[in-house]
Amino acid sequence: MLDPRLFRTELDFVKAQLARRSFAFDADGYVTLEARRKDIQVKTQELQNQRNSNAKAIGQAKAKGEDVQPLLDQVAELGDELKAAETELASIQVAMDGLMSSMPNILDAAVPEGKDEDANLEISRWGEPREFDFVAKDHVDLGAKLQGMDFELGAKIAGSRFVVLNGGLARLQRALIQFMLDTHTAEHGYSEVYVPFLVNADSLRGTGQLPKFAADLFKASSDPDLYLIPTAEVPVTNIVRDVIIDAKELPLKFVCHSPCFRSEAGAYGRDVRGMIRQHQFEKVEIVQIVKPEESVQAHEALTAHAETILQKLNLPYRRMLLCAGDTGFSSAKTYDLEVWLPGQGAYREISSCSNFKDFQARRLQARWRNPETGKPELVHTLNGSGLAAGRTLIAVMENYQDAEGRIHIPAVLLPYMGGLTVIG
Q1: Closest to 283 measured CA to CA, from 415, 189, 176
Q2: Most exposed: 45, 89, 363, 397, by fewest CB within 10 Å?
């Protein structure tokens, strides 16, 4: 959520920044609503003060034996007016909260202009795509040949966009997850956490999934409201909801493996082949909670931590800075890591690493106590995929295939594969 002070002091700036995202902000409507809120709030306070004064006067009149009925009538009338004013104030506040919660984050100045992914900016590349002396297959054909990736069985059990992994491929995905967790804890200093895979609405509001992205969620229960997590970002970041963190504890760095569940409501017709876009997938998420002045550096470090996984697996990739129109709702700045997939002859997203600055923290009331002022201040939150396990499995399959359709195990994964060096 944006800082309300920006709307009072820098309304034109807010309007211009939201326009970068093509977000239609009705500034005049906001000003009218805010003015009405102030008027009603002042009226409410005046009525409360008047009621208190009358109540005091009634006590004094009773002590003197005077007739208090006229004062009682005034108090009753004031009570009706006060109730009406409080009701209107509450209604205006609901409208204001709804308006504020619908607004995306202010973009970092470094984010390039643009409406969609075509305007994303390539920052760097690592590795050279392998040259094959045969026609490279994609993961769907490889999985079918190995009898290790069954989309028909997934559809039979659950529906479209589900898969069943068998044998070596199931073990390979598990090995990738363990390798990622070991790397992030041992080398990058993250603390591993295990969290609920169901969260309440407050948790989703805190990280920005609700109310805007309700259609992308799987709701599991209505009493109480519980949702399957779309990413471990939600429960992990909510660890610091309504918490004031001691300065000595920062930065907090968490890594978490979890399943993720997404309805992909806005993605029909996209990536329908294979495992690129599934309703259920595995991911290793890295999250940092930092002091505001450290979030820019932390964003670079967190992204580099995700890149380390790709480098250790020797998978060619590129780092992209997302443009204004492609940056997520809650993010101020996002890097996408795109891995090379020989079967598609293209780079595809495998990780998004975002700096949310204080946008999520304001929703979460996640704060730290600044020792210089002694006062609580909002932290900055960051997260990224380190990495998406299913897409990493795809990348390993396609980059490590041979002419017979076998998959050779990358050297860093051999300790996790129980002696298996080749799948096929």
Answers
A1: 176
A2: 45
Catalytic-role residue among 161, 205, 262, 363: 262
391 is catalytic: yes
How far is residue 377's CA from residue 361's CA, in Å, rounded to a whole number?
10
Q: Which of 241, 277, 318, 348 is catalytic?
A: 277
Q: Choosing from 295, 352, 354, 385, which is the catalytic residue?
A: 352
Catalytic, 8? Answer: no
End-to-end distance of the chain based on CA atoms, in angstroms?
Answer: 51
Any catalytic annotation for residue 205? no
Nearest Cα to Cα of residue 115 among 323, 382, 403: 323
Q: Pairing state of beta strands 252-261 and 244-246?
A: unpaired
Task: State yes or no: cis peptide before 342, omega within 30 of 0.
Answer: no
Taking alpha carbons only, the member of 338, 241, 333, 232 closest to residue 287 is 232
| Whether 5 is catalytic | no
Give CATH for domain 26-101.
1.10.287.40
Query: Fold for domain 117-423?
Result: BirA Bifunctional Protein; domain 2 (3.30.930)
* Cα–Cα distances in angstroms (integers) from residue 317 to residues 118, 127, 271, 280, 392, in the given order: 17, 7, 19, 24, 12
Q: Are 375 and 369 in contact (CB under 8 A)?
A: yes
Report field, pTM of the whole predicted structure over 0.90: yes
The domain locations on the chain are 26-101, 117-423
Rg of the chain over Cα atoms, rounded to whole angstroms, equals 27
Which of 349, 369, 377, 406 is an active site residue?
A: 349
In this structure, are residues 257 and 232 in contact, taking their beta carbons and an 8 Å threshold? yes
Average pLDDT for consecutive 10-residue bins of the chain (424 residues)?
A: 91 95 92 93 88 74 69 75 89 91 96 97 98 96 96 96 97 98 98 98 96 94 96 98 98 98 74 88 98 98 98 98 98 98 97 98 98 97 98 98 98 98 97
Structure tokens at 185: 């804890």
Distance of alpha carbon 108 from alpha carbon 122, whole angstroms: 17
Report the C-alpha gap between 51 and 60 in whole angstroms.
14
Candidate list 21, 205, 362, 391, residue with the active-site label: 391
349 among known catalytic residues: yes
